[in-house]
Amino acid sequence: MTWDTADPRPFGDDLSPALSCTPRKRALFAADTYFLESYGQLGALTADPDGFLHRHAALLLKPDAVVSRQIPVTVDWLARNGLRIVAAERTRLTRTAVRSLWYYQWNLATPQRRRLADLFMDSCDAVVLVVRPEADQTGAAPASVVMTVRKGPTDPLARVPGQLRYEIGRYSYLLNLVHTPDEPADVARELGIHFDTDRRERVYADALAGDDRSARARELADQLHAEVPRRDLTFEPAAERLKAAVAEAEEAARPGAVRDELRAARQAARSPEGYRRLLEAVWRAGLPLDPWDVVIVGTHVLPMKRKGLAPVLDGVGVHDWQRHMARLAAR
Fold first, then answer.
1. Contact 127, 61 (CB under 8 A)
2. Which of 8, 300, 53, 44 is nearest to 189 (CA)?
3. Which residues share a beta bridge with 85?
4. Domains of the chain listed by start with CATH number
5. What is the pLDDT of residue 6?
């Protein structure tokens, strides 16, 4: 990978086409520290890192999955769909981790989306599962690609029965509960983001052993459920709680422009535009309201994507990989 600079040296080694069907991703990841550290560590543990990454997928259960108690449901869904959990660990989605995970896509994220994500992503630990199909299928697309399709899309209205996101909750664009890396290269990179060297080695070692770790996943869910209260992620109750909290803040506020703006915005909160106005007033006033209620309402009424832009790296599907593998086989 090189750019138009005075230095002709490449930024990284060429990556195997087995890791991504996208030349642009292979070029970018060749210089991506998270990928390089994780892939290098995997290569020290197995003679076939590309094969490992082809056969395994990762699934991130975010804090919204924790508070809605959907980790056990996800474990059951994986078993029904012939996917074995071979590693399970807790992780923390800090502000830095979130921006690292979606670094190549968040050029599309609005400021409101980033602000809402910061309110809940670091609210408690999340869980990372490494999974693989119970039965290997010769010539199949990578497990990560298949898993991403079976997980379902971000848009709640586009999900269909049988998809994981359809089963565990169709709340909103941002509160989608789970995330999967798109391709084999993404699996390595994202494990590089979630875990330091020691914990990542344990994850890789567990996955290479191949034992069923679903009991470990349920154990982690029980731990988190004991630490974090359950939350209802539906819009209407959250909207009512939010307006009630604003009304209390009005009563405690001194007479003036801030109180007047809060009251007017609360009274107008009957439509998406009204709720947008309410959230903007809340943020301007600096009210310390319940972050989950702000997130639940905000994800329904605030803009999530900047229009007219393409992501630095877009997703790929099973058909993309089938064409890619056919081209590789024809060489």
1. yes
2. 53
3. 131
4. 23-231 (3.30.70.141), 235-301 (no CATH)
5. 72
